[in-house]
Specification:
globular; 419 residues; 8-stranded antiparallel beta sheet; disordered N terminus; alpha/beta
Length: 419
Amino acid sequence: MARARVVLAVLVLVAVTSCTAEAARPEPEPRAVTAGPSVDYYRKWANGPNPTGDPNVFPITVWMQDPSGIENGEKLGRAYPEIGIDTGIGLWEDEWWYLRQEGLHQTDWRVYVDGTRVDTVLADTAHARNYVGYLIADEPDMNKAYADKFHPEMQPSAILKAAEAVRAKDPTRPTYLNFSPWMGTPTGEIGYGYIEKSYEEDMRTYCSAADIASADYYGWTHPDRNHTVGAYSYGQVIDTMRKWCGPDKPLYGFVETGHPHDRGETIDPDQLESAVWNTILHGATGINYFAHSFYADGKGEYSSVLTRPDITARVTAVNARLKSLAPVLNAPNAPGLAAASDNGIPVSVLHKQVGGAGWVVAQTDGTKDHPRSLAARVTVDVPVSSGTATVVDEDRTVPIVAGKIVDDFGPYQVHVYRF
């Protein structure tokens, strides 16, 4: 099971320039950006999650859910698509696998199945569309030394060998791996053991086994408050993984929906939304929700995204917005734009060009000193000298003056501008 961790940043726009003492603040530097993965990447898999490379598809998934399970009187394989979660990551292998497969067929949901089930998938031609890929392993970077016992099958070379065997048998579906904070955080090297070659080479080998990858670090709910806490840590995971996985590989943001530790906090709707957007502003090309909750008394609850009404409502709204913006989010990144706040809180910015229009998505990040971020007035440079920008989904506009947009942001608030 994926464990709880923390990660970093979120989508933000806008910096402040004032004519008083604030004018002495240094000019912001644009953040370096790469072009980013393209939806064309998915075309290589005829039975994958997006075989046509449709730019209107933004991947939204959930971790290890049983399609035949029932919440609120409805099978999970039907309940999740109703809130905008189109795919499950993991149809796990045990004696009850056949029941999960039956639930998958009955609900017509789509999943990444256990990597040991390639032969089963290939034989089930009547339901080919329901199997979109293979989950090779969860947290191999941490589990190779789990419970003080060494597991050589989790070493980078062994994971790559397993992934290549799956690819050879079924080249029509991608491999998926989820990693731990050992790969996903800037301090991951500290906890990493049983090095096969070097930390850096091991991380790159691990990621080469994944056609699509993620790493879990539950920044809002981590039980150790001395660790990195706040939405900005979710974006930091994506930034860190880019070093190991390269600029072209799809990386999915991993965000909890409940209480993923036996201690720690329970995420609230505002925190969840801030984390989702922070991963996207830092280059996530999909979202994976972790719906399991664990408690010190030993009880567990596995579909918190459906059992917490406030979370269900917020996830539904966030997913709808992501899908409405899919052509923008899937577009290549345009050159980075400079943005700054009036109080020094960092601002994350995405710049896109779609259909002849410019788009900017921006979010005010937090910091370790201000993990809940702060309200701020933000100034962002845009490649248009004057005019008006529409603030998408907010029923308002803002002026563009001397190549800048100035706007107010709440803590971790996201604004989307079209001009």
